[in-house]
Design goal:
single chain; 305 residues; 4-stranded mixed beta sheet; 59% helix; elongated
């Protein structure tokens, strides 16, 4: 995925979220805007592309604001030729993940009746004959919103549809297996997308297929790592207050001051090299951080339950 710190221009900050525009967006914009045939002047092409920019921006802010609403982290959005990327990190719970992902397509659903009413009004007012450019723009904006929604809802990881599928499976299959199934389904869908790109001789579809393949393959590797992690031996006497999972045995924590890897539950949250003390310990399963005393108390509650 594109990085907000590499080759991107900072546009503005809204609700604590920074919006960046990747430089390659301008190249594609110039290419797309120069296409002729539907409008009488270049101005309408520019307005259509700006509408695309606005819809994608609103979609990504839907992800980011929903993620922050459930207690997650979402500070950056990058817009680039293949769409937008909201860097969201929701709490590692299926419900929080589902809402963070589903909020993006829901923005398109909310916009649909607005654009739909505008389209039908333009037809009833006779714009196809009296103002054909404006009518074509309204129809194109409606089409953009519908196409973006349908495309994003395809069950292909990492598209929204694939991630929603993963979040739904998470409720019954757990974090690792749900991601594994979603990425396998995604790889099947990507294979079909690659075939479509060849059939249509579309470089654009090929680029999207390559992007999806790289991210889906990364998700598959992550799922395999999570499955291996889930099989690690667990330490008795401690449990995460959030997810009630016992921590793994091993040097999986790293000192932020000296870089020493250590088992924080053996040293009681103190680095064995530089003696740095950590007031909270992060759970490697759900990502939440709690004081060591709460880990011990949660284990007692779990054992009694």
């Amino acid at each position: 995925m594109p990085s907000a710190r590499q080759g991107s221009i900072h546009l503005f900050r809204f609700a604590g979220v920074d919006l960046f525009l990747h430089w390659s967006w301008f190249l594609v914009a110039v290419f797309e805007i120069q296409k002729t045939g539907r409008y009488s002047s270049l101005t309408w092409n520019i307005l259509e592309y700006l509408a695309l920019f606005l819809i994608v921006t609103l979609h990504e802010f839907g992800h980011a604001l929903a993620c922050r609403r459930v207690g997650g982290t979402a500070n950056q959005i990058v817009l680039w030729p293949l769409g937008g990327v909201a860097y969201v990190n929701p709490p590692q719970r299926p419900g929080a993940t589902l809402w963070s992902i589903a909020a993006g397509p829901l923005v398109n659903v909310v916009l649909l009746p607005i654009f739909g009413v505008a389209y039908f009004l333009s037809r009833s007012l006779g714009w196809p004959a009296s103002m054909p450019d404006l009518y074509t723009l309204v129809r194109s904006i409606l089409t953009i919103d519908v196409v973006l929604f349908v495309f994003n809802m395809l069950p292909i990881y990492p598209l929204d549809g694939g991630q929603i599928l993963r979040a739904l499976l998470w409720f019954v299959m757990g974090r690792a297996r749900s991601l594994l199934v979603a990425t396998i389904v995604g790889l099947i869908g990507i294979a079909g997308f690659i075939g479509l790109a060849f059939w249509m001789h579309s470089v654009w579809y090929g680029a999207m297929a390559a992007f999806m393949l790289l991210n889906c393959w990364g998700g598959l590797k992550h799922a395999q790592a999570l499955l291996r992690f889930a099989k690690l031996p667990r330490r008795e006497g401690f449990a995460c207050p959030s997810c009630k999972t016992a921590p793994p045995i091993g040097v999986f924590w790293k000192c932020g001051q000296c870089g020493q890897a250590f088992d924080t539950f053996v040293t009681r949250a103190v680095c064995p090299r530089c003696a740095a003390q950590y007031p909270v310990t992060r759970c490697l399963d759900c990502g939440e951080a709690h004081p060591m005393s709460e880990w011990m108390a949660a284990a007692l509650v779990t054992a009694k339950g």
